[in-house]
Amino acid sequence: MASQNQLASIKGAKVLMVGAGGIGCELLKTLALSGFQDIHIIDMDTIEVSNLNRQFLFRKSHVGQSKAKVARDAVLRFRPHISITPYHANVKDPDFNVDFFKQFNVVLNGLDNLDARRHVNRLSLAAEVPLVESGTTGFLGQVTVHVKGRTECYECQPKPAPKTYPVCTITSTPSKFVHCIVWAKDLLFTKLFGDKNQENDLNVRSTDATSSSEHVEDVFERRKDEDIEQYGRRIYDHVFGYNIEEALSNEETWKNRNRPKPIYSRDFLHDEIAQQNGNVDNAASDPSSVSAMASLGMKNPQDIWCLKENSRIFMEAFKLFFMKREKEIGNLTFDKDDQLAVEFVTAAANIRASSFGIPLHSLFEAKGIAGNIVHAVATTNAIIAGLIVIEAIKVLQNDTNNYRMTYCLEHPTRKMLLMPVEPFEANKSCYVCSESPLTLEINTHRAKLRDFVEKIVKAKLGMYFPLIMHGAALLYEVGDDLDEAMVANYAANLEKVLSELPSPFTSGTTVTVEDLKQELTCNINIKHREEFDEEKEPDGMLLSGWTQASSVEKDDNKSNGNGGSTSNASQAVPVEAEDNVEMDVPSGKKRRLSEISGQDLLSFTDETKNHGKLEVVDDDDDLVMLDGDPGLNKRKRMQ
Ligand SMILES: Nc1ncnc2c1ncn2[C@@H]1O[C@H](COP(=O)(O)OP(=O)(O)OP(=O)(O)O)[C@@H](O)[C@H]1O
Ligand SMILES: [Zn+2]
């Protein structure tokens, strides 16, 4: 029950919510039921069928309508006298500027991507409005409080970069199913159905191609007069048979690894493919409903298919692409909602997994891995929404000593499912809230201003309306009110290498980058460097001072590594980032707001312990105690 004081601050508060999805629906309901009376809500999306299982303010009849507006209407039905103002818009729209933010007492985020979170962080800082930030991934969740001058900002700690895998792990030495999935979707699928010009390690010449360098056959090209079945079998034998034989010939690679076994279509595909033709012809005419499973009479996506079944799905999906979706071939990119693409990728990944002795997976599981899907848990969203409201009330009451960031865990640790932690002070080297300069190592004779703008200013610093200055020279800016001469001048600058700009970048140069909309200015010290490691520094430049944590998996290829691959492809293969929860919990490096007695340092859950250590506040009021044997919990005290 809220106290009188709390009720008074709740009633007088004007609150901005950003995001009306899984967390947002719960949050709006909880805010309304807690007594909040003036809530503004921004969401750019419309309702989709897949939202209905957890975004309970929405019904089937709302599909296609604005989330923000429908959420407002749904809550007004049980709280008709409060004011809810919806905006069906992107929070990055210039209308939502610093002045807009200034009208609120607190901002509450229920977003699902880093970009929007960073943007809201900057506007909240500029407007000096406290921000309560949140995220969930499956059973995991977190709520953090960011108050300028009191705590760290959302960007004080670098966020984990999208997970990437070394190319040689994907092309030559997979050890996990996810490696097979990345191979199947980013290399094989793309090579067959997407951009044919993509260079990748699959393109090892086949044994039957001539060895003269005059005529090198692209094995992925369909030969003249080759029927689809022959073509499919040739690809199958090439990637699962011949390529593996080739890799095996490099003995060094397999000294400390299990040798994969080549797989050929003749062992799993007899003449039955021919019998399937009738079914293929009967397949639905709507391209999006074409399915290899349907045409082979396989129904359950949770079944784990044997090698023979995977081989049949592989061939059937391959044929269906050419027979039913030929127009799309050459332009396809993998989409987790494309049934046929998921079937093909599941089968291909399973055949490869089988070759490497990796356990096979069902289509349902493979789809989750390929689409980087962590199934949402409605209860986690509800818990997190409740915690957001608790922190919002403390913020409104200026109850600074009791601010907590709280982690929701999958398994109880020390009988706790919710881990409250005191917020940390701002990181002095944070370029967002502490105006600390960054350092950029870059080849100033090779990199163009365009590379700097795209790879650093936009991708790393998250600025959308950048302005770049060196000394008194304005080198680049974005805006609606630029005259033609300026636009032409900036366009010309973009194509220049840094050392040849009107005001050249050289070692020792300090460049100022600003985003006027975010009211953010950042100085970057330039350091010329000649060479970069293609694998570790694929951007060809390195930003430090405030750096992204590298999450390239440690490659265990200690010897020559490339396992018989012939191409020189060397960049890491990216997979999408899990952007909801950053479980890189505060590391011991950060300083806390105040000293806490009875503190306990421990590592917890497998997901989090690799990223850092968590400082836990032993404050029973804030903890959820669970029954259970404490001995069962993974627990480790730090010295
Ligand atoms: N830049 C933005 N401006 C406004 N709203 C945003 C922005 N980015 C994300 N959102 C909103 O944040 C919400 C996040 O909710 P949630 O994580 O449940 O995702 P979802 O898209 O509803 O569901 P799912 O991705 O799981 O299908 C979405 O409704 C989305 O529209
Ligand atoms: Zn900061």
Automatic annotation (TrEMBL):
<dbReference type="Pfam" id="PF14732">
    <property type="entry name" value="UAE_UbL"/>
</dbReference>
<feature type="binding site">
    <location>
        <begin position="112"/>
        <end position="117"/>
    </location>
    <ligand>
        <name>ATP</name>
    </ligand>
</feature>
<feature type="binding site">
    <location>
        <position position="43"/>
    </location>
    <ligand>
        <name>ATP</name>
    </ligand>
</feature>
<feature type="binding site">
    <location>
        <position position="67"/>
    </location>
    <ligand>
        <name>ATP</name>
    </ligand>
</feature>
<keyword id="KW-0067">ATP-binding</keyword>
<dbReference type="GO" id="GO:0031510">
    <property type="term" value="C:SUMO activating enzyme complex"/>
</dbReference>
<dbReference type="GO" id="GO:0016740">
    <property type="term" value="F:transferase activity"/>
</dbReference>
<comment type="similarity">
    <text>Belongs to the ubiquitin-activating E1 family.</text>
</comment>
<keyword id="KW-0808">Transferase</keyword>
<feature type="domain" description="THIF-type NAD/FAD binding fold">
    <location>
        <begin position="5"/>
        <end position="430"/>
    </location>
</feature>
<dbReference type="Pfam" id="PF00899">
    <property type="entry name" value="ThiF"/>
</dbReference>
<dbReference type="GO" id="GO:0005524">
    <property type="term" value="F:ATP binding"/>
</dbReference>
<comment type="pathway">
    <text>Protein modification; protein sumoylation.</text>
</comment>
<dbReference type="GO" id="GO:0005737">
    <property type="term" value="C:cytoplasm"/>
</dbReference>
<keyword id="KW-0479">Metal-binding</keyword>
<feature type="binding site">
    <location>
        <begin position="19"/>
        <end position="24"/>
    </location>
    <ligand>
        <name>ATP</name>
    </ligand>
</feature>
<feature type="active site" description="Glycyl thioester intermediate">
    <location>
        <position position="168"/>
    </location>
</feature>
<feature type="binding site">
    <location>
        <position position="156"/>
    </location>
    <ligand>
        <name>Zn(2+)</name>
    </ligand>
</feature>
<dbReference type="InterPro" id="IPR035985">
    <property type="entry name" value="Ubiquitin-activating_enz"/>
</dbReference>
<dbReference type="GO" id="GO:0046872">
    <property type="term" value="F:metal ion binding"/>
</dbReference>
<dbReference type="InterPro" id="IPR030661">
    <property type="entry name" value="Uba2"/>
</dbReference>
<feature type="binding site">
    <location>
        <position position="153"/>
    </location>
    <ligand>
        <name>Zn(2+)</name>
    </ligand>
</feature>
<dbReference type="GO" id="GO:0016925">
    <property type="term" value="P:protein sumoylation"/>
</dbReference>
<keyword id="KW-0833">Ubl conjugation pathway</keyword>
<dbReference type="GO" id="GO:0019948">
    <property type="term" value="F:SUMO activating enzyme activity"/>
</dbReference>
<keyword id="KW-0539">Nucleus</keyword>
<keyword id="KW-0862">Zinc</keyword>
<dbReference type="Pfam" id="PF10585">
    <property type="entry name" value="UBA_E1_SCCH"/>
</dbReference>
<feature type="domain" description="Ubiquitin/SUMO-activating enzyme ubiquitin-like">
    <location>
        <begin position="440"/>
        <end position="532"/>
    </location>
</feature>
<dbReference type="InterPro" id="IPR023318">
    <property type="entry name" value="Ub_act_enz_dom_a_sf"/>
</dbReference>
<comment type="subunit">
    <text>Heterodimer.</text>
</comment>
<feature type="binding site">
    <location>
        <position position="430"/>
    </location>
    <ligand>
        <name>Zn(2+)</name>
    </ligand>
</feature>
<dbReference type="InterPro" id="IPR028077">
    <property type="entry name" value="UAE_UbL_dom"/>
</dbReference>
<feature type="binding site">
    <location>
        <position position="433"/>
    </location>
    <ligand>
        <name>Zn(2+)</name>
    </ligand>
</feature>
<protein>
    <recommendedName>
        <fullName>SUMO-activating enzyme subunit</fullName>
    </recommendedName>
</protein>
<dbReference type="InterPro" id="IPR045886">
    <property type="entry name" value="ThiF/MoeB/HesA"/>
</dbReference>
<dbReference type="InterPro" id="IPR019572">
    <property type="entry name" value="UBA_E1_SCCH"/>
</dbReference>
<feature type="domain" description="Ubiquitin-activating enzyme SCCH">
    <location>
        <begin position="327"/>
        <end position="367"/>
    </location>
</feature>
<feature type="region of interest" description="Disordered">
    <location>
        <begin position="550"/>
        <end position="600"/>
    </location>
</feature>
<dbReference type="InterPro" id="IPR042449">
    <property type="entry name" value="Ub-E1_IAD_1"/>
</dbReference>
<keyword id="KW-0547">Nucleotide-binding</keyword>
<feature type="binding site">
    <location>
        <begin position="51"/>
        <end position="54"/>
    </location>
    <ligand>
        <name>ATP</name>
    </ligand>
</feature>
